[in-house]
Amino acid sequence: MDDRAPRAATGRAKRGARVTIHDVAKASSVSVTTASQALSGQGRMALATRERVKAAAKALSFRPNAIARALLKQRSFTIGLLTNDTYGRFTLPVMAGISEALVDRGVSVFLCSVERDPVIGQSHVDAMLEKQVDGIIASGKRLDSRLPVDLSGVDVPVVYAYCEGPEGSVGFVSDDGQGARLAVAHLVDRGCRRIAHVTGPEDFAVVHRRAEGFAAALAAAGLAPVRAEPLIGDWSEAWGFAAAGALLEGPAAPPDAVFCGNDQIARGLIDALTLRGLRVPQDVAVIGFDNWEIFAAATRPPLTTVDMNLKDLGRHAGLTLLDLVEGRPVSPGIRKLPCRLVVRASSG
Amino acid sequence: MDDRAPRAATGRAKRGARVTIHDVAKASSVSVTTASQALSGQGRMALATRERVKAAAKALSFRPNAIARALLKQRSFTIGLLTNDTYGRFTLPVMAGISEALVDRGVSVFLCSVERDPVIGQSHVDAMLEKQVDGIIASGKRLDSRLPVDLSGVDVPVVYAYCEGPEGSVGFVSDDGQGARLAVAHLVDRGCRRIAHVTGPEDFAVVHRRAEGFAAALAAAGLAPVRAEPLIGDWSEAWGFAAAGALLEGPAAPPDAVFCGNDQIARGLIDALTLRGLRVPQDVAVIGFDNWEIFAAATRPPLTTVDMNLKDLGRHAGLTLLDLVEGRPVSPGIRKLPCRLVVRASSG
DNA sequence: CTGAAAGCGCTTACAG
DNA sequence: CTGAAAGCGCTTACAG
């Protein structure tokens, strides 16, 4: 026949004409209205008509264009995920949880890693907004750090996940105090009475949350801490190793249990205890924090540790953002999500 | 005045009318054609007009709707990133590299983690396709594993990154053989002559690539391996620890260097050597593979190791997908990208 | 029960 | 140098 009707000047897609709902309508001899309604289950029409349209769509392998729908409905079914952590271990499960929760509701996730530079960060946010994301999740690698972007003027809902947000925002964090209490209560249950706490640098908020939980649980059990203050160091194995010396020397009675601020410290501590001929958990029980499998499961003996349920946290954040996007009421504030204790051999 | 003209039945966005190019045109008293061209730098018009339009856009904080542009241009400036690894360490830098390379070209990345289930995986791919992604990157946690999705019928370009693809596809992997040669050549340079290889399970392709590189580099230096075969175990510290025993016992002369299949094995091996009173690197030099900072930097002494440049690999994959999307020629095949040696104290 | 038409927000060939 | 109009692919109120 003759040339096809004039098309947009941009030309056809490289891989041959794509099939649209017009093609489906034509193939099943109905209007596009009917075709659209048949496929979406809307409207009323003869069952036979609906089936005929569906069959035609299948035969043509029709794939509805979500971009066209988004333009019309003013809703992209897309959200933006901002993270400032590309190597770390915390954002990854959070991201997986978000992605899982949303993908199942037909929402796709734009991943965007914002580094230190606020100018670049802002341009990434702008790009998301131009792409009409329905909402944004800001996630970080530290509970107490902010992303280097200003989300206050943004006209879509924002949820913070494992990341500090501004006053009045909606956010989710792990309840590190509760996690610490869980750990200490478990040690007390096992009969431990002289429990020490070895942890990371004081400029981390989690160090304080965990120390508070530690102190509260001891008090609840009517015990005094084996040291007035937690032993502060860094997050490394080397520090855990060194801390063993500080704990065992001096006039005070040695501890019969140590609650560590993270798994690496616990690992170093266990190594040092073992080297000194002490048995874990018989002489000293040890609990870590993070449940970083690569450490917790490789430690001899395997490490009892607090898991922050980060994937769950991500799932909550995703679902809550969806509530906000779809206009369901959500009260502002930071929600603390409970941790769980993963019991392995190091605590008996 | 009177009510605003009838709008689409879906109603306005919740947060007040969004500003469109019509608003900008009206505010600067030009047609939408001129407004569009003024903002995009196209067309020819009085400089003053262009400036006036730009000023109006800025004053109204006009944000062009990328969805509308995508519908018109048949190009979404969006790609899909499939990964089957949500906790591991390899995909993360690959993803960061992809994301970085593309975000800088105005392309956003849909993150989608596909677990084992092929049905779910396929539905995620369908969702991406409905959202009109310009292309797809499949990335995995193992060089020799495939994603549980069939990408062969997909009508957009696909690139594989640290992941096995089908015959004739475009992919990027690390050159583990070259990485191993780098490590051994370095040891030879340092004067080592009896070099052993301790590595992971045989069903990993990388185990063979690294062992081949090891053998080739020894041969090139005119050296015989201290053992006929590499010592095969798993990827754990425990195995590295145990391997030290196997290496030092028996009639053969002990090695003066060990090239390990990963950093965890190296870590365990160093621990065992140290425990036996051997000095690293003076008595035995040790090199790892992966450059997993948390292990490599924490080892005593810090570990010399092979870095696979995964972020770079991701960047290449992203840029190549863009080439494909934009119609530039790309020859099919798997490209091996070089590793680099990160020298620390464990090799002298 | 079914169809023609408007419109989401943009870009671009074409006419003036 | 500038503007009116068509069209990307879809959904939906409205008319028949």
UniProtKB/TrEMBL annotation, chains A, B:
Name of the protein in question: LacI family transcriptional regulator
GO terms of molecular function: DNA-binding transcription factor activity; transcription cis-regulatory region binding
Domain (HTH lacI-type) ranges: 19-73
Keywords, alphabetical: DNA-binding, Repressor, Transcription, Transcription regulation
Repressor in keyword set: yes
PANTHER family: HTH-TYPE TRANSCRIPTIONAL REPRESSOR PURR-RELATED (PTHR30146:SF148), LACI-RELATED TRANSCRIPTIONAL REPRESSOR (PTHR30146)
Source organism of this protein record: Lichenibacterium ramalinae
CDD domains according to UniProt: HTH_LacI, PBP1_sucrose_transcription_regulator
Pfam family membership, one: Peripla_BP_3
Domain of life, source organism: Bacteria
